[in-house]
Design brief:
Length: 100
């Protein structure tokens, strides 16, 4: 199993949408992928409440069957459709992929 974790810091505002609204939109859009992409076993998105200087604003935690499933997920059109939304809202991204 592969675990795919991504954390983003968001702009205070992007395209006229405030950070909190963008965080909720990203959460809903990513969690809507559950059950729609082969090999994606679990997807969960959290929104930070601690608001410290070290905090990311949004975290994606997902589990996939394999590295091949991760590659297929990343190339899948439904995932690709989410990328512009996240890129516009985010100012920083951190990623960890590992097997476990």
């Amino acid at each position: 199993m592969v675990k795919h974790i991504v954390m983003w810091r968001l702009h205070d505002e992007a395209n006229g949408i405030l950070k909190a609204e963008n965080a909720l939109l990203i959460k809903k859009t990513l969690e809507d992928l559950q059950g729609k992409i082969p090999g994606l076993l679990h997807i969960e998105v959290g929104i930070d409440f601690s608001c410290t200087e070290q905090s990311a604003d949004v975290v994606l935690y997902s589990e996939l069957e394999s590295r091949d499933a991760l590659n297929a997920y990343q190339a899948h059109p439904l995932h690709q459709a989410v990328i512009p939304l996240v890129k516009q809202a985010a100012c920083e991204r951190t990623l960890v992929d590992f097997e476990g």
